[in-house]
Amino acid sequence: DAGVIQSPRHEVTEMGQEVTLRCKPISGHDYLFWYRQTMMRGLELLIYFNNNVPIDDSGMPEDRFSAKMPNASFSTLKIQPSEPRDSAVYFCASSLRLAGVNEQFFGPGTRLTVL
Amino acid sequence: QQQVKQSPQSLIVQKGGISIINCAYENTAFDYFPWYQQFPGKGPALLIAIRPDVSEKKEGRFTISFNKSAKQFSLHIMDSQPGDSATYFCAASINFGNEKLTFGTGTRLTIIP
How close B103 comes to chain A (CA, Å)? Predict the structure, then answer.
């Protein structure tokens, strides 16, 4: 398996622009997570889905952030409009709930820079 | 109550030494405690995990020690090697029907020759 795939790997944009980050989870996994990592705040969970349904979006910082999972093999995280403080590495992770196991597999991340 | 507190923030250990990273939690409903390892430019990856029904779990040079009464758990890396240099995150979750992991703030470990 190719693992979790994220695109783009790097994104540089200007303040006010719309940014869309993409994620393809591991085939067969039923959970998908979006995290944001910064030096100041560490690794923060933004939102997670189970079977394509959003379960907990309490970590989404503002209405400027939105996430969708239209099918089991694709998810997007959108920031509109983007701001410099959104600069961070965004990770997508997926997992398959098995009895006694809760391993999340992380993608390589998207490094977002908002100028 | 959902926080997981991790220390130290950074750690330097000589090659061959023992690296110890500590975490503490408040929520007694947590029942799954994993450690993730992250190398620069990569996503975190599961290293080792423990459930509160045991006090210790060992996998190779990596050991988790768990103290349920103190609500603390720690990662021990024996015979630390330069290849162990990475950032380590502890985490905790309520596993029954909930896959949300609460992560600690991370420890940057550097192993020097």
Answer: 7
